[in-house]
């Protein structure tokens, strides 16, 4: 591991920074409230191998909430990692606005999951480890209707700090546990080293597209912020000849995980090395305890 000695100080506040951060937060809220956001999740149902009945009401293996009346929507077949949907005649299930009249594969290893619709409901298949499930959205979800914003700490530029990314000399993975109790090995992008309040801290980061993704906990989790920790994204530093690089960690952009907004998410948890012995009084505060 290559270590470069650098003194890291807070990043000076840029002109209009607070306005830029407010715009970023409004985009975050818009995303949460969108059709593909976390606020409209209404269910997570695990499939068994073979046939699974699907409908609105308690008489089905996959029991969607009832609207005006119970309804038989069809059958789901999980076989060898593929999921096929066979509609019930007259059930008015659609894909891209077109009625589904014949059996159709809605999930396979080499294709994007298909989204099906019925009234205000939207559903598709997710895979977690070796488990296959139906993720349900309801565009009329009470979670969406009850949402009135996220409380945040006041914006403070001292929580924007430069960090040095120590990259592993050889490809390496770190174990990430999720709320289902499953552990996955995620490629380590590097360890971010930075100073806060006169002390040096380290956070392991994984890669997510052009960003670094950081799962972290801190001393605020006990009371003020989400108990299982928060998420933070940072730009990947440009590579240099010696393999070193710096980026900015802006804890004002620390966000709640999806599990703060819905009981139907499958959030990853911060690894033990990413639990900081300091109170990060920046970013989003506790929203819920789903």
TrEMBL record:
InterPro entries linked: DUF1684 (IPR012467)
Pfam family, one: DUF1684
Origin: domain of life: Bacteria
PANTHER family linked to this entry: DUF1684 DOMAIN-CONTAINING PROTEIN
Protein name: DUF1684 domain-containing protein
Organism of origin: Spirosoma soli
Lineage: Bacteria, Pseudomonadati, Bacteroidota, Cytophagia, Cytophagales
